[in-house]
Amino acid sequence: MDNSPAVMPVMGTGIRALTDLTHLGFWDIPMITSIPEIVYLAPTNVEEYFAMMDWALNQNEHKVAIRVPTYSYEHSKGEVDTDYSDLNKFKVVKEGKDVAVIAAGDFFVKGESVVDALAEKGINATLINPRFVSGVDTELLNSLRQNHKVVVVLEDGSKEGGFGGRIAQAVGATGMKCLTYGLEKKFVDRYNPEELEKAYRLTVPQIVEDTLNALK
User: Fold this and answer.
1) CA separation, residue 164 to residues 147, 161, 200, 216 (Å)
2) Is 201 left (phi over 0), alpha (psi -120 to 50) or beta?
3) What are the CA-CA distances from residue 76 to residues 17, 73, 84, 115 (Å)?
4) DSSP letter at 161?
5) Cys-Cys link to 145, which of 6, 40, 111, 174 (CB 3.0-4.6 A)?
6) Which mean pLDDT values do the consecutive 10-residue runs of the chain (216 residues) have?
7) pTM for the complete prediction?
Protein backbone atom coordinates (compact mmCIF):
# COMPACT_ATOMS: atom_id res chain seq x y z
CA MET A 1 0.00 0.00 0.00
CA ASP A 2 1.18 3.53 -0.77
CA ASN A 3 2.41 5.11 2.47
CA SER A 4 1.71 8.68 1.36
CA PRO A 5 -0.35 10.56 3.97
CA ALA A 6 -3.86 11.69 3.11
CA VAL A 7 -6.78 13.34 4.87
CA MET A 8 -10.43 12.54 4.14
CA PRO A 9 -13.29 14.37 5.91
CA VAL A 10 -16.37 12.12 5.92
CA MET A 11 -19.66 14.01 5.84
CA GLY A 12 -23.32 13.05 6.09
CA THR A 13 -22.88 10.19 8.54
CA GLY A 14 -25.22 8.87 11.21
CA ILE A 15 -28.88 9.00 12.09
CA ARG A 16 -29.36 12.78 11.89
CA ALA A 17 -27.77 13.33 8.51
CA LEU A 18 -29.80 13.01 5.29
CA THR A 19 -32.73 10.66 5.83
CA ASP A 20 -33.44 9.75 2.19
CA LEU A 21 -32.89 6.14 1.16
CA THR A 22 -30.27 7.13 -1.41
CA HIS A 23 -28.18 9.22 0.99
CA LEU A 24 -27.96 7.18 4.20
CA GLY A 25 -24.67 7.48 6.06
CA PHE A 26 -24.91 4.46 8.37
CA TRP A 27 -22.12 2.26 7.03
CA ASP A 28 -19.04 4.47 6.84
CA ILE A 29 -17.32 2.93 9.87
CA PRO A 30 -17.47 -0.69 8.60
CA MET A 31 -16.46 0.44 5.11
CA ILE A 32 -13.58 2.76 6.00
CA THR A 33 -12.12 0.73 8.86
CA SER A 34 -11.90 -2.35 6.63
CA ILE A 35 -9.03 -0.59 4.83
CA PRO A 36 -5.64 -1.60 6.30
CA GLU A 37 -3.57 1.04 8.09
CA ILE A 38 -6.18 3.78 7.95
CA VAL A 39 -6.88 5.95 11.00
CA TYR A 40 -10.53 6.93 11.47
CA LEU A 41 -11.15 9.67 14.02
CA ALA A 42 -14.54 10.54 15.51
CA PRO A 43 -14.59 14.01 17.12
CA THR A 44 -17.13 14.70 19.83
CA ASN A 45 -17.33 18.47 19.42
CA VAL A 46 -16.39 21.36 17.15
CA GLU A 47 -13.05 22.13 18.79
CA GLU A 48 -12.00 18.48 18.76
CA TYR A 49 -12.88 18.27 15.07
CA PHE A 50 -10.63 21.20 14.20
CA ALA A 51 -7.84 19.83 16.42
CA MET A 52 -8.04 16.45 14.69
CA MET A 53 -8.05 18.12 11.29
CA ASP A 54 -4.97 20.21 12.16
CA TRP A 55 -3.14 17.12 13.38
CA ALA A 56 -4.10 15.11 10.31
CA LEU A 57 -2.97 17.83 7.92
CA ASN A 58 0.37 18.31 9.65
CA GLN A 59 1.37 14.66 10.17
CA ASN A 60 3.00 12.62 7.42
CA GLU A 61 2.72 9.02 8.60
CA HIS A 62 -0.91 8.00 8.23
CA LYS A 63 -3.96 8.08 6.03
CA VAL A 64 -6.59 9.74 8.19
CA ALA A 65 -10.36 9.92 7.85
CA ILE A 66 -12.32 12.24 10.12
CA ARG A 67 -16.04 11.91 10.81
CA VAL A 68 -17.54 15.39 10.50
CA PRO A 69 -20.10 15.88 13.31
CA THR A 70 -23.73 15.84 12.18
CA TYR A 71 -25.76 14.71 15.23
CA SER A 72 -25.20 17.96 17.12
CA TYR A 73 -22.72 20.78 17.09
CA GLU A 74 -21.41 20.65 20.62
CA HIS A 75 -18.65 22.90 21.92
CA SER A 76 -15.90 21.65 24.20
CA LYS A 77 -16.22 22.29 27.92
CA GLY A 78 -12.43 22.53 28.23
CA GLU A 79 -9.17 22.13 26.37
CA VAL A 80 -9.02 19.41 23.71
CA ASP A 81 -6.03 17.27 22.79
CA THR A 82 -4.02 18.35 19.77
CA ASP A 83 -1.82 15.27 19.22
CA TYR A 84 -3.35 11.97 18.08
CA SER A 85 -0.17 10.21 17.06
CA ASP A 86 -0.54 7.68 19.90
CA LEU A 87 -2.96 5.61 17.88
CA ASN A 88 -6.07 4.01 19.37
CA LYS A 89 -5.61 5.56 22.80
CA PHE A 90 -9.02 6.23 24.33
CA LYS A 91 -9.58 9.12 26.73
CA VAL A 92 -11.24 8.65 30.12
CA VAL A 93 -13.34 11.77 30.63
CA LYS A 94 -14.87 10.70 33.94
CA GLU A 95 -13.73 7.89 36.22
CA GLY A 96 -16.25 5.69 37.96
CA LYS A 97 -16.97 2.02 38.56
CA ASP A 98 -19.34 -0.83 37.71
CA VAL A 99 -20.36 0.64 34.32
CA ALA A 100 -18.12 2.10 31.60
CA VAL A 101 -19.81 4.07 28.82
CA ILE A 102 -17.75 4.34 25.64
CA ALA A 103 -19.48 6.93 23.46
CA ALA A 104 -17.98 7.58 20.04
CA GLY A 105 -18.12 10.82 18.10
CA ASP A 106 -21.57 12.32 17.69
CA PHE A 107 -23.01 9.97 20.30
CA PHE A 108 -20.72 11.28 23.04
CA VAL A 109 -23.41 13.76 24.07
CA LYS A 110 -25.77 10.78 24.43
CA GLY A 111 -23.13 9.03 26.52
CA GLU A 112 -22.98 12.04 28.85
CA SER A 113 -26.75 11.88 29.28
CA VAL A 114 -26.62 8.14 29.99
CA VAL A 115 -23.95 8.67 32.66
CA ASP A 116 -26.02 11.47 34.25
CA ALA A 117 -29.13 9.27 34.24
CA LEU A 118 -27.21 6.38 35.81
CA ALA A 119 -25.99 8.75 38.52
CA GLU A 120 -29.61 9.42 39.41
CA LYS A 121 -29.92 5.66 39.97
CA GLY A 122 -26.91 5.66 42.29
CA ILE A 123 -24.39 4.37 39.74
CA ASN A 124 -21.17 6.32 39.27
CA ALA A 125 -20.32 5.30 35.71
CA THR A 126 -17.07 5.84 33.83
CA LEU A 127 -17.30 7.91 30.65
CA ILE A 128 -14.84 7.35 27.80
CA ASN A 129 -14.27 9.25 24.57
CA PRO A 130 -12.60 6.69 22.27
CA ARG A 131 -11.59 9.32 19.66
CA PHE A 132 -10.54 6.48 17.32
CA VAL A 133 -13.12 4.18 15.74
CA SER A 134 -10.54 2.29 13.67
CA GLY A 135 -8.89 0.54 16.59
CA VAL A 136 -9.26 -0.63 20.18
CA ASP A 137 -7.45 0.46 23.33
CA THR A 138 -7.00 -3.03 24.75
CA GLU A 139 -4.85 -1.78 27.64
CA LEU A 140 -7.63 0.46 28.88
CA LEU A 141 -10.32 -2.18 28.37
CA ASN A 142 -8.29 -4.73 30.32
CA SER A 143 -7.86 -2.25 33.18
CA LEU A 144 -11.62 -1.74 33.46
CA ARG A 145 -12.20 -5.31 34.62
CA GLN A 146 -10.74 -4.44 38.01
CA ASN A 147 -13.88 -2.56 39.07
CA HIS A 148 -16.36 -2.66 36.18
CA LYS A 149 -19.05 -5.21 35.33
CA VAL A 150 -20.65 -3.76 32.18
CA VAL A 151 -19.26 -1.89 29.18
CA VAL A 152 -21.77 0.11 27.12
CA VAL A 153 -20.73 1.19 23.61
CA LEU A 154 -22.61 3.90 21.73
CA GLU A 155 -21.94 4.68 18.06
CA ASP A 156 -23.87 6.69 15.52
CA GLY A 157 -23.48 4.09 12.80
CA SER A 158 -24.04 0.48 11.84
CA LYS A 159 -23.71 -2.07 14.62
CA GLU A 160 -22.85 -4.82 12.15
CA GLY A 161 -19.16 -4.51 11.32
CA GLY A 162 -18.95 -1.38 13.43
CA PHE A 163 -16.88 -0.02 16.28
CA GLY A 164 -18.96 -1.62 19.03
CA GLY A 165 -18.36 -5.08 17.62
CA ARG A 166 -14.61 -4.67 17.95
CA ILE A 167 -15.02 -3.45 21.51
CA ALA A 168 -17.28 -6.40 22.35
CA GLN A 169 -14.72 -8.82 20.94
CA ALA A 170 -12.00 -7.35 23.11
CA VAL A 171 -14.21 -7.16 26.20
CA GLY A 172 -15.31 -10.77 25.80
CA ALA A 173 -12.00 -12.06 27.10
CA THR A 174 -12.22 -9.94 30.26
CA GLY A 175 -15.41 -11.44 31.70
CA MET A 176 -17.28 -8.13 31.62
CA LYS A 177 -20.60 -7.83 29.86
CA CYS A 178 -20.76 -5.62 26.78
CA LEU A 179 -23.83 -3.84 25.40
CA THR A 180 -23.49 -2.32 21.93
CA TYR A 181 -25.80 0.34 20.53
CA GLY A 182 -26.00 1.60 16.98
CA LEU A 183 -28.03 1.41 13.80
CA GLU A 184 -29.42 -1.72 12.23
CA LYS A 185 -28.21 -2.98 8.85
CA LYS A 186 -31.39 -1.93 7.09
CA PHE A 187 -32.45 0.56 4.45
CA VAL A 188 -34.90 3.15 5.75
CA ASP A 189 -36.40 6.05 3.84
CA ARG A 190 -37.47 9.52 5.00
CA TYR A 191 -37.53 8.38 8.58
CA ASN A 192 -38.03 10.40 11.73
CA PRO A 193 -34.74 10.28 13.70
CA GLU A 194 -36.48 10.28 17.09
CA GLU A 195 -38.74 7.40 16.08
CA LEU A 196 -35.82 5.41 14.66
CA GLU A 197 -33.78 5.94 17.83
CA LYS A 198 -36.65 4.55 19.88
CA ALA A 199 -37.08 1.58 17.52
CA TYR A 200 -33.37 0.76 17.83
CA ARG A 201 -33.36 1.29 21.64
CA LEU A 202 -31.07 4.30 21.33
CA THR A 203 -32.92 6.62 23.71
CA VAL A 204 -31.29 7.39 27.04
CA PRO A 205 -34.04 5.75 29.17
CA GLN A 206 -33.82 2.56 27.07
CA ILE A 207 -30.04 2.38 27.34
CA VAL A 208 -30.21 2.98 31.10
CA GLU A 209 -32.88 0.27 31.48
CA ASP A 210 -30.74 -2.24 29.58
CA THR A 211 -27.67 -1.31 31.62
CA LEU A 212 -29.45 -1.75 34.94
CA ASN A 213 -30.72 -5.16 33.81
CA ALA A 214 -27.20 -6.17 32.80
CA LEU A 215 -25.94 -5.31 36.28
CA LYS A 216 -28.34 -7.75 37.94
Assistant:
1) 21, 8, 15, 22
2) left
3) 21, 10, 17, 17
4) T
5) 174
6) 86 93 95 96 96 97 95 83 97 98 97 98 98 98 97 97 97 96 96 97 98 97
7) 0.96
